[in-house]
Design a protein that fits this description.
InterPro entries: MAPEG-like_dom_sf (IPR023352), Membr-assoc_MAPEG (IPR001129). The protein contains 5 helices and no strands. It is an all-alpha fold.
Length: 131
């Protein structure tokens, strides 16, 4: 497996961990009657700030993972894996790992800087695939 696909697999496992980091407190705060329902209505009470931030961080990773998945797949299928693209892939992964606590604890502007590093790493992989 290429380093880019290894990073993609680890990023997918991170996404699963992120889901648990959000789902457990959400179930405790909102109750399983609500979280297990069809959620046709808003909950009776809002989630805590931290749990809501964990949900937004989870959703953000879904968005970033699409582009990173494309980058890792294109690099691998086209046989363009290099030390540069591998470094970009693991930079993306490291940024996503750091993004979770940065968002959960409201570390601004660090959260945005960490996000930008991961985004730039993905962009550089996509550009490398075209060159």
């Amino acid at each position: 497996m290429t380093p880019e696909l290894t990073a993609l697999t680890l990023a997918a496992l991170l996404q699963m961990l992120q889901f648990l980091l959000f789902a457990i407190p959400a179930n405790l705060e909102l109750g399983t009657n609500y979280t297990g329902s069809s959620r046709d209505y808003a909950p009776d009470k809002p989630m805590s700030k931290r749990t809501a931030r964990l949900q937004r961080a989870l959703n953000n990773h879904f968005e970033g993972l699409i582009l990173f998945g494309i980058a890792a797949t294109v690099i691998t299928i086209s046989g363009q894996s290099s030390s540069f693209t591998a470094a970009c892939a693991f930079t993306y992964l490291a940024a996503r790992i750091l993004y979770i606590p940065a968002y959960a604890f409201g570390l601004n502007p660090w959260r945005s800087l960490i996000w930008a590093i991961g985004w730039a790493a993905t962009l550089l992989m996509l550009i490398a695939a075209l060159l």
